[in-house]
Design brief:
The structure holds 2 protein chains of 2 kinds. Chain A is an all-beta fold. Chain A is built from no helices and 12 strands. Classes of the chains: A mainly beta, B mainly beta.
């Protein structure tokens, strides 16, 4: 079945550092790819998305490129801020279905 | 536009009891999915309903069931509760079209004692 793996556990950059959170997926079909962000006490919310290969999702300075050749969708930002601290989930869904598969989540804690 | 709402927000039950959780999707959304979130297992897909029919199902025992009504509102039921069922239960709605994003509610925190 489909699967998603991402940077495990917690990452602790300082404010102003650059960031890469890795995400790789396995599927035999043609997924749409997403990053969701979850703040304490809330449900996950859509952060950015890419619907097909070579699409780039962008939101609030974050970017992720849908790379079919490496089956990756890494989340990147040039300069993180304390307000970016949250849990980030990489996810995929198939073009012809609504069954989302989520990665285990990465806790981003930006140090002031 | 109002977001996804879930009731109740918090619930405490005893082992062996059953529980029903409710979800109201965003207006116009026809698909509702349910997820279980725990620290150890992350976000796990339970099932998805579209136009009152279960369209997808995750790998959970038959104690977990759901339904969707004609107004797209959905309920999930867990019978014979076990301690391991303690989790945050999230509902997400979408238009139900191919590859579209889902919008999550705040979740129901279930504690089984």
């Amino acid at each position: 079945g489909d699967s998603v793996v991402q940077t495990e556990g917690q990452v602790l950059p300082s404010e102003g550092d650059s960031l890469i959170v890795n995400c790789s997926y396995e599927t035999t079909q043609y997924p749409s790819l997403f990053w969701y962000v979850q703040y304490p006490g809330e449900g996950p919310q859509l952060h950015l998305k890419a619907m097909k290969a070579n699409d780039k999702g962008r939101n609030k300075g974050f970017e992720a490129m849908y790379r079919k050749e490496t089956t990756s969708f890494h989340l990147e930002k040039d300069s993180v801020q304390e307000s970016d601290s949250a849990v980030y989930f990489c996810a995929l869904t198939q073009t012809y279905g609504q069954n989302f598969v989520f990665g285990p989540g990465t806790r981003l804690s930006v140090l002031p | 536009k109002a977001g996804v709402t879930q009731t109740p927000r918090y619930l405490i039950k005893t082992r062996g009891q059953q529980v029903t959780l409710s979800c109201s999707p965003i207006s116009g959304h026809r698909s509702v999915s349910w997820y279980q979130q725990t620290p150890g297992q992350g976000l796990q897909f339970l099932f998805e309903y579209f136009s009152e029919t279960q369209r997808n199902k995750g790998n959970f025992p038959g104690r977990f069931s759901g339904r969707q009504f004609s107004n797209s509102r959905s309920e999930m039921n867990v019978s014979t509760l076990e301690l391991g069922d303690s989790a945050l239960y999230l509902c997400a709605s979408s238009f139900g079209t191919s590859g579209g994003e889902q919008y999550f509610g705040p979740g129901t925190r279930l504690t089984v004692t």
